[in-house]
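Record 1 of the preview.
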Amino acid sequence: DLAIARLEDWFDAAEKRAAARLRENEARKLRGQQALPDERESLAAAITLCDHGMKLKNQALDDLDFLKSLAAARAAGRAGSEESQAQDLVEKHAAFKNSFMPAMQMLQESVLCYPKLTRAYYELAICQVMMGRPGTARKLLEEAVELSPHSQAILSLQGEVLLELGQWEDAAKTFKRVLSLEPESGRGNFGLARAYAGLQSDMNQCQAGLHALDRAEQLGVRENPELREHLVALVKRFERGEAAVVRGAGARVVHEL
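->
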């Protein structure tokens, strides 16, 4: 039933776009303006740009030294600095100049060519995450979720970006959406555990975080003793009637996973 409803939504949206396009072209004709380009041609061009962008991105990621530079840039982004020496080093790397930057440019052109191509937003968001720019990635993922609200991959990445930004409540809501679509998602359960570890709201929530972590590990996610220890410590403090630990310390545990 859900699949049929989604298909019906897609056809309804397509009909609305076609009707809006017809109205716009009629108005343009009256104004003596050129008609809008055929939507199918725009989509085909956007897909081609997106495919080339992904190939260039993968070429850049074959360079292990460049991967190390990206890891340092992402760590800087987690620390709250989207403009740092680490980012400068990435941008000076040959793989960035020859492949990664052209890849991002192609993905941006793909979005401009056909603003409803979800994959282009998603791939561009991945690039921004790798560059240590979670704020920019969040904006792109908001667009992607608007276009594909039932995509587990997009929602999972959005949740992870929200975790990097320290927006625990929004991250928890996003991972709950992932689990509503696929309760057996290891990535979704692990993300929810991290979000609850960051929130530190009450004992029930921390216990739910432990349950989500247990389920994630059962589903094949690598064991995370540091996160487990943090959640257990929170539960014990609540049981003793003590306040939660200093949020800054909790945030460091979640960010460093």
